[in-house]
TrEMBL record:
InterPro entries: CheY-like_superfamily, Sig_transdc_resp-reg_C-effctor, Sig_transdc_resp-reg_receiver, Tscrpt_reg_LuxR_C. Residues 4-120 form the Response regulatory domain. This is Response regulator transcription factor. The lineage of its organism: Bacteria, Bacillati, Actinomycetota, Actinomycetes, Kitasatosporales. Signal peptide: none annotated.
């Protein structure tokens, strides 16, 4: 029997793609929406059985505020968080807010569906490997997040650090190019180099990694960066 669902993510394409996949598997998707800031109001109004809530930064303060409100006003709704591999703090924050589970956003659709069914049944949902990793990090903290942030920061040139900060601020290629005084093609090249050096496949993953490791705090605000120069290349 299908589940009445809502899919909410700040990235509408991701929300709609997941919603389409779940519809094909026989579930009733009441809405696929963005951004997550309006999730609580929508869920309270529609009252699904399960809400899939996507986040790129599970350790950020306030990211699970919608979950708190949903569980306060619609306690029967199971909220399932979809996100990157989190720190133990991220998993703890999700459950503390009232979430029924945490699923990695690179999970196969079959895994997401199993999590949905368990959440509707009132079970807590978290992959064993996530729990194992969380306990391992808590019991044996090999390195503090800032240590990793410093290591990543040293891999990037000052120019690439500025590009990463702008990516994390949500700027697209056009805005990056305008803000740095370079051609859009040069900005795209910088972005690709940043992704390659960080070992990630998308801007979203780069921003999440930078936030999680404290790299952005170490990089400082753009105001302190060197003034943008005009790129003389015709690229």
């Amino acid at each position: 029997m299908g589940v009445r669902l809502m899919v909410v993510d700040d990235h509408r394409l991701l929300a709609e793609a997941l919603a389409s996949a779940l519809k094909l598997r026989g579930h009733r998707v009441l809405a696929a929406a963005a951004p997550t800031g309006g999730a609580a109001e929508l869920v309270i109004t529609r009252a699904p059985e399960v809400c899939l809530l996507g986040t790129s930064a599970p350790a950020e303060p306030g990211v699970f505020d919608p979950v708190v409100r949903i569980k306060r006003e619609r306690p029967q709704v199971a909220v399932l968080v979809l996100g990157p591999v989190p720190s133990p703090r991220g998993i703890a924050a999700a459950f503390a807010a009232g979430a029924s589970g945490y699923v990695r956003h690179d999970e196969r659709i079959e895994g997401v569906e199993r999590a949905i069914m368990k959440a509707r049944a009132g079970e807590a949902v978290v992959a064993p490997q996530l729990l194992q990793g969380a306990f391992s990090e808590l019991l044996n903290p090999a390195a503090q997040p800032d240590d990793e942030g410093q290591r990543l920061l040293q891999m990037l040139t000052p120019r690439e650090v500025e590009v990463l900060v702008r990516v994390a601020d949500g700027e697209d290629t056009r805005l990056i190019a305008a803000g740095m005084g370079i051609a859009p093609s040069t900005a795209r090249t910088h972005v690709q180099r940043v992704l390659m050096k960080l070992g990630v496949g998308s801007r979203l993953e780069a921003a999440a990694l930078a936030a999680r490791t404290g790299l952005l705090d170490r990089a400082g605000p753009l105001d302190n960066a060197a003034p943008p120069r005009r790129d003389p290349s015709p690229q």
